Each structure stands twice: as C-alpha cells, then as structure tokens.
Amino acid sequence: MLNTKMIGNKIAEARKKINISQAQLAQRLFISQQAVGKWERGESMPDIITINRLAEILGVDLNYFSENFQSTDDDKALKKTIGHNGGIEQSEQEVANSSYAQERQVLTNFSGSNLPESDFAGVTARKGKFEGSALRGSDFSGADLTGSSFKASDVREANFDGANLTDCNFYALDLSGASFHQSILERTNFSASGLDGVKFSDVKLTSVKLTVTDLRKTVFENCIFDGVDFDKSDMRGLCLDGQTFIGVKFDNSSLKEATFYGATLKNVSFRATYALTNKFYRTIKTIRFDGAMMDKLSYNALKGMGADLSKVTIV
Questions:
Q1: Other Cβ atoms within 10 Å of 210 Cβ, number
Q2: What secondary structure, in 3-state letters, does 173-198 show?
Q3: pLDDT at 56 (0 to 100)
Q4: CA dihedral 263, 267, 268, 269 (to 10 degrees)
Q5: If we measure between CA atoms, which residue out of 181, 150, 147 comes closest to residue 165?
Q6: Dihedral of the alpha carbons of 18, 20, 21, 23, in degrees to the nearest 10
Q7: Cα–Cα distance measured from residue 37 to residue 39, given in angstroms and rounded to the nearest whole number
Q8: Rounded to whole angstroms, how far apart are CA atoms 61 and 1?
C-alpha cells in the first residue's frame, strides 16, 4: 500500500529539483494548485495515470515513488559515474536542459476524459490524444496542438482560434459550432465529422483533407484553400463566395447549388471518379460562378462539363 505522506514528500522534492512552483506543476497537469498542495502535504494522492504524468514531467522513474527507491543526492558522484561509463561529463546546466527538453516533449493523453468547458488556451500539447473525450465548449485558442488526434469526441462549440493544428487528425467528431479563426491548418485532416455551424475565418488551409464530411452548414469567410482535397464531402448549397482556391480538388463531392460568387479558382478539379452521368452534368449546371476569376485550365474543364461560366473572368 502506497504511503500518502511519502508520495507527497517525493513530489515536492522532485519538483524543487527542477525548480518549478506548485502553480507551474499544476498548470502542466491541468489541475488546481490546491490539488498539488494537498499531495505534498500528504492529504491526498494522485491516481496512477497522474503519477505516470508526474514521472514524465519531473524527469523521474516510476520506481522513484516507491518506498524502496534509493535516491542519490550527490551530484558529483553522478557526474563521475557518467564520465566513467561514457567518457562524457555533463555540467549541471546540461542536465537541467536535458530534463527541461524531456518535459517539453511529453505526450499528452486526455483520451476518455470528461473535460467540458476546460481551459487549454495557449498550452503546448504536441501529439496529444483527445479520443473519446467530452470537450464541449473547451478553449484551445492559441494552443500548439501539432500532431494531435481528436477522435470520436464531443468537441461542440470548442474554440480553436489561433491554434496550431498542423498535422492534426479530426475523425468521427461532432464539431458543431466550433470556431477556427486564424487557426494554422496545414496537413490537417477532417474525416467523417459533422461541421454544422463551424466557422473558418481568415484562415489559410494548406494541404488539408476533408473526407466524407458534412459541410452544408459550415461557414467559410476570407479563406485561402491551397492544395485542399474535398473528398466525398457533402457541400450542397454551400456558400464559398469570395474565397481563393489553388490546386483544390472537389472530386467525388456533392456540390449541387453551391455558390462561388466572386471567388478565385486556379488549377481546380471538379471531376467524378466514375463515368460522367447526366445527373453529374445537371449538378454542375446548378453551381454558380458569377463574378469568379479562373485560370484557363479550370475554365475549360468546367466549360467542358457544361457549367454556366457566362459571368466568369479568365485570368
């Protein structure tokens, strides 16, 4: 049986060694400072998942928290051992830098968590996992979430404004009402998700994929789509007026009655995977391009499909 007081003392000792406050430790664990204080006073104890996170943040082995763990406080002896075994002697500053780098690279796993309306604003949580989690109304504004995975979670009304979402994967989610204002979207994947009322504003989407995604009620304002792939997505009646599309594929997506008023299209594809049926041609004729500007390749491809380009300017 774990000794609560002993665990608390070990947490305090390791925290002080890497020179961080209770508040800073609490912030990295996304808990209150009061909770850390209770641990260190022996009034309560973290659960096993949190102990794993503590070990990573504090730069210690899990065995450190056991009663039989023998610590070595003699830094000179440690340096001597390192020098003897590897022929390399690290300075105290190098050791500190190594611990700090290790802490910064910790994988963040919030899968299966109940965290509605949580504050993640400005955090660094690269390669984080938010799978099967309740995150409705949570604030991720300005966060660095590079490489993170959001899967089968409730992310309704979440705020991703200004967040770095490079290489992120949004799969089988309810993103209704979420906001992506000035977010960084590079190689970001949205798949099999509902985006009702989601708003993308002042965003450049680079090499983004939107696969089997319902976009009928999604809002795009002042966006640039560069190398984006809309694959098998439902875009019926979608307003894409005034947006810029460069190297974009709308292949296999439903675009009936979608509008591109005043949009700019360069090297854009609207092909279907299978034979071009009468139904496909009829759908192309319902798309409005009035006031749009197109390069010759996009213009001729659409013209060959029967699109109404009478009010389009070739650039």
A1: 25
A2: CECCCCEEECCEEECCEEECCECCCC
A3: 80
A4: 160
A5: 147
A6: -130
A7: 5
A8: 19
What pTM did the predictor assign?
0.66
Helix locations, 31-148, DSSP H: 33-40, 48-58, 75-86, 92-104
CA distance 201 to 180: 6
Q: Name 159's bridge partners.
A: 139, 179
Give the integer Cα–Cα distance in Å for 148 and 108: 9
- Cα 152 to Cα 174: distance, rounded to the nearest angstrom: 8
Read off φ and ψ for residue 234, nearest 5 degrees. Answer: -90, 110
CA–chain centroid gap for 191, Å, is 13
pLDDT for residue 85: 43
With tokens 């089988």, the residue in question is 172
Considering only CA atoms, which of 236, 253, 165 is closest in space to residue 204?
Answer: 165
Task: Give the domain 4-104 fold.
Answer: 434 Repressor (Amino-terminal Domain) (1.10.260)
Q: Which two tokens stand for residue 154?
A: 């409730």
Alpha-carbon gap, residue 26 to 36, rounded angstroms:
6
| Every domain of the chain and the residues it spans | 4-104
First-to-last CA distance in the chain? 75
Q: Which of 23, 92, 100, 19 is nearest to 57 (CA)?
A: 100
Angle at which helix 4-17 crosses helix 48-58, to 10 degrees, equals 30
| Average pLDDT per 10 consecutive residues for the chain, totaling 315 residues | 78 89 84 89 82 82 68 42 42 45 56 89 90 92 94 93 96 93 97 92 96 93 96 92 96 90 95 66 91 95 91 94
- The confidence score (pLDDT) of residue 88 equals 39
Beta-carbon contacts of 227 under 8 Å, excluding residues fewer than 6 positions away, are: 206, 207, 208, 246, 247, 248
Exposure pattern of 3-24 as b/e (b: 16+ CB <10 Å)?
eeeebbebbbebbeebebebee
- Contact status, residue 311 vs residue 289, Cβ threshold 8 Å: yes
